[in-house]
Amino acid sequence: MSGKKILLVDDDPVFVMATSMKLRSEGFEVITAEDGAGTLTALREGQPHLILLDILFPPDVPHGGVVSWDGFDIMNWLRRMGGHAGTPVLLITAGAPEEYADRARKAGAAALFQKTGEPSELLRLIHQLLD
């Protein structure tokens, strides 16, 4: 999988650091973003082969405390964008995946993964989606 670029979008710095290290050790190039705005910036830098996208993000306190985009909003935006519509999105959540399974399927997510799951399972999903 050397040379494959993965965009990891998550607001949890510990998860981002640990997952980025694991992915890099597998030969992936990893770019990160912590919210919807960061996702837009990261996508300007180049086309990832896969997007790992958290579902829930905290309110945007610096900009008035409004609720920021959630992962489904970001996915919807990606699907409307011509250059990113075909990029597979693997949704990730700290919550119970059953709560989001139907919505993720309808939104066009390639897969759904619980953050507390086995890292080897996440890697298996990534390899499966990129093969």
Q: Which helices and strands appear, and what pairs or packs with what?
A:
Blueprint: E1 5-9, H1 13-25, E2 29-33, H2 36-44, E3 50-54, H3 71-80, E4 89-93, H4 101-107, E5 111-114, H5 119-130
Parallel strand pairs: 1-2, 1-3, 3-4, 4-5
Question: What are the salient characteristics of this protein?
Answer:
alpha/beta; Rossmann fold; five-stranded parallel beta sheet; 5 helices
Notes on the structure:
- With 131 residues, the protein is an alpha/beta fold.
- It has helices at residues 13-25, 36-44, 71-80, 101-107, 119-130, and strands spanning 5-9, 29-33, 50-54, 89-93, 111-114.
- A five-stranded parallel sheet has the order 2-1-3-4-5, with helices on both faces.
- The radius of gyration is 14 Å and the shape is globular.
Structural class: alpha/beta
| CA-atom Rg in angstroms | 14 Å
**SS element count, helices:** 5
CATH superfamily: Response regulator
In short:
This protein has 131 residues and is α/β, with parallel strands linked by helices.
